Amino acid sequence: MAGIKDVARAAGVSVATVSRALSGRGNVSPSALAAVQQAAHDLGYVVSSTASGLASGRTRNIGVLVPVINHWFYASVLEGICTALMREGYDTTLYQLTKDPAQRHQIFSDFLQRQRVDAVIAVNVELSETEVVALHALDKPLVGVGGPLPGVPTLQVDDEAVSALGTAHLLSLGHTRVGYIGGSSETDVDFRVPSHRRIGYERALAEAGIDLDEALCVGADFTMAQGYTVAKQLLGNPDARPTAIFAASDEMAIGAILAARDLGMQLPRELSVVGVDDHELAEFFGLTTIRQLPHEQGELAVAMLLRAIRKEEPARAHTLGHELIVRNSTSRPPADH
Amino acid sequence: MAGIKDVARAAGVSVATVSRALSGRGNVSPSALAAVQQAAHDLGYVVSSTASGLASGRTRNIGVLVPVINHWFYASVLEGICTALMREGYDTTLYQLTKDPAQRHQIFSDFLQRQRVDAVIAVNVELSETEVVALHALDKPLVGVGGPLPGVPTLQVDDEAVSALGTAHLLSLGHTRVGYIGGSSETDVDFRVPSHRRIGYERALAEAGIDLDEALCVGADFTMAQGYTVAKQLLGNPDARPTAIFAASDEMAIGAILAARDLGMQLPRELSVVGVDDHELAEFFGLTTIRQLPHEQGELAVAMLLRAIRKEEPARAHTLGHELIVRNSTSRPPADH
DNA sequence: ATGAAAGCGCTAACAG
DNA sequence: CTGTTAGCGCTTTCAT
């Protein structure tokens, strides 16, 4: 395996010049640069990241903290991060932060302390006080995606605005009995996304001058199966059935669509449904939804982080855009008889 | 940031002893061990992975190659890998191998050459001749999951047996017209999984003495949407409609279920459907399927790799188990009238 | 079982 | 713009 000395010898320059030429730091004459690149290419030389990291303190590697990988949203964000980092020549090191305290402790007190990462991206992870302290103690650039962390600049969608928009879409079509499928108290712990969405729903109702009906609001765990179950409850109620449902995630919304179908209802004639995410299945089910772009969120997080690493500017919190995608799951409510 | 010298001083021993005590290599007296551990804990000392890696050549980091992240199967395998590696104190560095030749070249000629990984796991990636050569040239332990790579020990399910089992299940229920939804020529390129599954389907038919009917075999791209589309074609045929469908993935099988419902068919009375995977949605749809356990596959790959790294034994190819999970999507065919 | 010391392969002053 | 050289923080002989 060729080393920097071999390249130096082959190019007829010193190792310092090779280092400068290959890293782009410091001045190198065009001729030396060309000679070094040629030699490096011929020898198949690649800088050793351990040696370079030890000497410079830079690793060209970013740690990514995620709560789960096997989930549409997280996997999408991760893909965006990974793609963007690779483009910049950075490696992506993945840390799955489970609920196991021992494992979490290991991550914060060992893995992240090993001097292996230049910076950290935390995707929707919920951290304890001490964990946040440990993160900050790394004294490395830090960016959050999706979940607000104390003192960590975060990219977020405005969940309240998202659900206000979804609800308003239904109201503007003429619906007055709009059900809400949100988080249960259990999932509520996660960053209050559910409660923010609930607030947006209520705000939209209030702005339309419609009283909130608690009987129309149910909680689920963001899965299709639970969306199905709770939607059946909502739709089975003989005297308080909603004509529309706003669900806080596409998976729950799809569950609601399937529940309505199983009840023999015609969509969207008898029931309108709106979700949130623009999940990969949303189009197939013709689901009207509020799109968020997790892939782009990941890319954006990387862009912010790199700017911070390069000291161009500190990372700052940022609100991400969202967009109403109208498909076939929404229409005017059935005419009253 | 405390270094090994600080620990040595605090423990009253030499840095060599600290290194030995903390790495578990070489002999250390119990008293010295205790003193070192105490000192390290007090000082919050963690071995610098760059320094340790440079000096020892071991990085405690594994590179994982995946074609996509945002997909149930790959995300599950990745989760299994990540969990298992973490348990062993290893980091997971993720490389998404897209179709972009420039990016692929970067991964094989830069990223993997940086001396940052001790070994590589390749999940279902399809590599060119030169890429395989580059991988082997790393001279590091290598394990494949799901897709056979020349010269790389691989964990695989027996795709032929899987689909023979799924098809046989339907035949044993009495079906004689069993449709097949497999890969299209486009996805066929990926490791011949589709064609292996096709072969298993045909074998099961042959064993049951049933002639293959090409009209009952259609290709799709493994998504729910295409499964839906092609199933409609199959089911809409007035004089050659199958009474059962074996789909090479759960997502396509679910698409077929939805297609049948939209045609007003009663499942499983008028149509039986079997998938492959035991996807997270399979249970919700009551889908009978052949389960494979991607999470476990990831864990197994790690176990093999670590044994190879520790020189206990070379990695060897291995066939993974599968299991028929019977739910509500299969039953006897409707009685002929 | 332990310590001294020589690297590991590169970067970054520093001097020129 | 370029070369010399002293580390970066650990591991690992080699003695003892």
UniProtKB/TrEMBL annotation, chains A, B:
Residues 2-56 form the HTH lacI-type domain. It holds the Pfam family Peripla_BP_3. InterPro entries: HTH_LacI, LacI/GalR-like_sensor, Lambda_DNA-bd_dom_sf, Peripla_BP_I. One of its GO terms (molecular function) is transcription cis-regulatory region binding. Keywords: DNA-binding, Transcription, Transcription regulation. CDD domains: HTH_LacI, PBP1_LacI_sugar_binding-like. SMART domains: HTH_LACI. It comes from the Bacteria. Transmembrane segments: none annotated. This is LacI family transcriptional regulator. It comes from Glutamicibacter soli.
